[in-house]
C-alpha cells in the first residue's frame, strides 16, 4: 500500500460568483526560521480553485503563513492580500486550509 507524504494544501471558493477562484497566486512562507518570513513556494490555483501541494520538501513542525493575492484584475477589490498563519505540530498528517472569499468577507478553517 503506497503512502503519500503530508503536505499543506488550499482550496479557494469565490462565494459571490459560486465558483472556484481560478488563478489566485498563493505563497507559502516559513515563519519560525530567521528574522523574516522565508518564502518556500508559490503557485496559482487550478481550474478547481486548488493548490494540492504547496511543499516541495518534507513537512516539518513549525509556523507557516499562507498568503493569498486576491486582488481582482477585472475591477476594484476590498481585500488585496489575505495572510493566514498556522502552526504545524504533527508532521505526519496533511494540512488543508480552505478559503471562502466574498467581496467584503472571508472565512477559513482547518479542512480535512
CATH superfamily: Transthyretin/hydroxyisourate hydrolase domain
Query: How many domains is the backbone divided into?
Result: 1
Mean pLDDT: 91
- The number of helical elements comes to 0
Main sheet makeup = 5 strands, mixed
CATH A-level architecture: Sandwich
Approximately what portion of the residues adopt beta-strand conformation?
A: over 45%
Distance between the termini: 21 Å
- Oligomeric form: single chain
CATH class: Mainly Beta
Supply the helix-strand structural class: mainly beta
- Based on CA atoms alone, the radius of gyration comes out at 14 Å
Low-confidence stretches: none
Q: What's the total number of strands?
A: 9
User: Order of SSEs, N→C?
Assistant: EEEEEEEEE
Which bin fits the share of residues in helices?
Answer: under 10%
In CATH, the topology is named: Immunoglobulin-like
- Overall geometric form: globular
Summarize the structure.
The protein is mainly β and 112 residues long.
Structure description:
The structure is a single chain. This protein has 112 residues and is mainly β. It has strands spanning 8-14, 19-20, 25-30, 38-44, 50-51, 62-69, 81-88, 95-102, 105-108. The strands form two sheets. Strands 1, 2, 5, 8 and 9 form a five-stranded mixed beta sheet that branches.
Amino acid at each position: 500500500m503506497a503512502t503519500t507524504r503530508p503536505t499543506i494544501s488550499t482550496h479557494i471558493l469565490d462565494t459571490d460568483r459560486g465558483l472556484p477562484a481560478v488563478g489566485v497566486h498563493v505563497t507559502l512562507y516559513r515563519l519560525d526560521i530567521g528574522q523574516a518570513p522565508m518564502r518556500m513556494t508559490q503557485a496559482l490555483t487550478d481550474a478547481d480553485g486548488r493548490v494540492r501541494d504547496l511543499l516541495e520538501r518534507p513537512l516539518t513542525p513549525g509556523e507557516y503563513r499562507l498568503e493569498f493575492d486576491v486582488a481582482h484584475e477585472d475591477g476594484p477589490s476590498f481585500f488585496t492580500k489575505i495572510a493566514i498563519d498556522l502552526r504545524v505540530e504533527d508532521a505526519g498528517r496533511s494540512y488543508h486550509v480552505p478559503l471562502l472569499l466574498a467581496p467584503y468577507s472571508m472565512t477559513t478553517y482547518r479542512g480535512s
